[in-house]
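Margin note from the TA: students keep mixing up input and output lines. Inputs are the sequences; the output is the structure of the whole complex. Example:
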Amino acid sequence: MKKITLSALFLILATAFILPVIATIATSFYGERNFTLQNYTDLLFDAFAFYPAFWNSLLYAGVIVIVQLFVVIPCAFGFANASFKGKGILFIFYIILMMMPLQVTILPNFIGLRDLGLIDTRLAVILPAIFSPFGVVVINQYMQGMNNSIIEAARLETNSIIKIIFHTVIPQVKICIFAVAVFIFAESWNMLEQPMLFLRSTNLQNLSVFISESGSYAGNILFPASVFFFIPVLILYSFFNNYLEKGLTFGELAK
Amino acid sequence: MRFLRKLKSWNMKCIYLLIPSLAGTFIFFVIPFVRVIYYSFIDNQFRRNFVGLDNYVQTFQNEFFQLALQNSLLLIVICIPVLILLAIIISLVLSYGIKTLRKTRAAFILPMLIPTASVAEIWRLVFTGETVLPVYTLFIWKNIGICVILLTAALTAIEPEIFEAAKMDGAKGIKLHKRISVPLILPTIIFTILLSIVNSFRVFKESYLFYGTNYPPSHSYTLQFYMNNNFLKLDYQALATSSVYTMILVIILVLVCFGLQRRYSR
């Protein structure tokens, strides 16, 4: 009996957590009093700023994920295999940088971008995100469990470290790479402060900013826009959800 | 020749791999941050007089900074214990509970991936009136996912033999987990506390999207609003100083966390 009550309580808790998503979908089809597609037609046929915003979100998140992986995987491997003075301290620096909240890093990012003349360009939101230390730390942590004898064997066959990474390292850590990619995609897809502060032109803004300003458009377009906003994330989750716990195992950094 | 060979060695190649990441980190984080520290010691962008710790004292005495700091600390003290306790219970159920309950996993993981902007409107429909509740619940809703993921990963890593032995000794149910699982994943619990505190500094996004303004009711005016408003006013001195304050706080937290993790490590 006690078990059933506890289970029911847990199910209620789970429902409460998923409810905002379901409620958003339900409300998007809700008119004055009945089911309607009016909100969707208002969004798709009248709020034309929605399209560039959606495209920008997709472009920013896509480019950030792909380029970041090319920076982060070699770097994580380098940290795992190189030996030099100060490596430990350099890695702790990466961990501390990873833990820095956005509000600390956003001013340095802004200054760096301003000096390079990149404010109000697409690169302003893309470049700093590419060099986020998160992937380096998490993938490096995961690489501690790698089978090094395969890499040793590959070193006898080829001199190219890039080839070794592609053929022997990536297959071993791909679960972690998928998990990191999903995480980075969600972060970039969700970003709000960077476009708000680094971009001025409306045609460069992403969906977060569009939605936060959508009160200025006619009709109730907020809910259908929100639905379109989380569809890509739901798709990603349905493909990769099993990798998340297996890949994001960085809970014990101090070890 | 020896020098050339050294440049081509495996170790050097591994070091070269760090260069792209290091270059970007220096251009967008380290070098500009040195300038941020410099800004925090001068009177303004144009005169550039060195003023020592004046900016630090001024920021600390600023009433909005104090309000923001108070609200940020209150959020940590109230929300983090709730968040972590919930996360531990949820992870235990998802790992050891009955099958039906395990299927609810997505409900807890999805919020961390879902854009805050897309649910802010629902929150506005549900929460009316002047309380801190909407931002607190949004924070917990948004942050439970990563805690559950990290804790479940740690629980999965526990060897089954440990449970067998404990069961032989007569422990079972909640007691078993309280005595065995939770202490074993303590290092990860400590890390999720750190991560959540750091993420609580980021609650600006949730708050901003909920209130739709840079000037929320005073109970929800947190550090990030203070910093964001100084960003919009281009008050680099105030901004730089609060950046440095936050940075020092985060470094202390990270080091404390690592110290604790080492201590409670298996």
